[in-house]
């Protein structure tokens, strides 16, 4: 059994508080970057869990929120490929998991968005023409998206090499 400290708190309490501080700090940073609050908190909680996976009930308890709030957050996180859902063997309960390469996979998904945006920007340039202010702005956006697509491909290749060298995977 954990030895009680003089302030009547156990090391487990200290660990839970440390996890909570990390979750709230990282979630606040994700919110500043544009992610909504509940998905940010759920993602940070999964990221900081020992196994990288928790059930809805575990997330609800840890974050002190309703299962409905967790469900909505997980739906969003799964949609943007930051978490996956899996069934517990022999159970109907789902466990939500964050992978070590979630950022890589999320960026790969963004590549498809970039291509769709490029198509729309090309159509806008054709519609308005380069001799109009809006056509030039749309073309600038198109050029930026083309640049991003090219650079993301190169960046992903460099990341794969870096990961293999430094993380063994």
Automatic annotation (TrEMBL):
<dbReference type="Pfam" id="PF12802">
    <property type="entry name" value="MarR_2"/>
</dbReference>
<dbReference type="InterPro" id="IPR000835">
    <property type="entry name" value="HTH_MarR-typ"/>
</dbReference>
<protein>
    <submittedName>
        <fullName>MarR family transcriptional regulator</fullName>
    </submittedName>
</protein>
<dbReference type="InterPro" id="IPR036388">
    <property type="entry name" value="WH-like_DNA-bd_sf"/>
</dbReference>
<dbReference type="InterPro" id="IPR036390">
    <property type="entry name" value="WH_DNA-bd_sf"/>
</dbReference>
<keyword id="KW-0805">Transcription regulation</keyword>
<feature type="domain" description="HTH marR-type">
    <location>
        <begin position="34"/>
        <end position="94"/>
    </location>
</feature>
<keyword id="KW-0804">Transcription</keyword>
<keyword id="KW-0238">DNA-binding</keyword>
<dbReference type="InterPro" id="IPR052362">
    <property type="entry name" value="HTH-GbsR_regulator"/>
</dbReference>
